[in-house]
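Tutorial handout. Part one gives the primary structure; part two gives the three-dimensional structure as tokens.
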Amino acid sequence: MELEQALHAARALVIADLTARDVADADVVSLVEDAVAGRRWWVEQWPEGAGFLAGLVAQDVQDALLERYGRWPLCPVCAAGDPHALDVEPELGPDPHWVCGKAGVVVARVGSLGAAGAAGAAGPAEGGG
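Part two.
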């Protein structure tokens, strides 16, 4: 997969998830751009990792959102207890998914949170992770 194509695909998938959770405002999209720019160097050093970009960019954006706004994306599976964010699995691998670590449930592929239904469609939650 060509470098630019891989970077654009990762960007599109993460923006689709942000849009599905109604948090894709200009400031948040800037975080995506920063993550893509940061991963450009990484994938130039390790071209074989191009297939891992979607998960890595998703994790980078998730970390940046946690620092600035709160947890994202919130788990739509666990109705009881404190709100918590989904995790990207595998952490470094192809075909990344959003997973509820507490329930051990795959919620959606990265880029497909909109298809996971309206449950848990809230934006970032205040506070740490």
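Part three, for discussion. The helical segments are 3-20, 26-45, 53-68. The chain has a mean pLDDT of 89.
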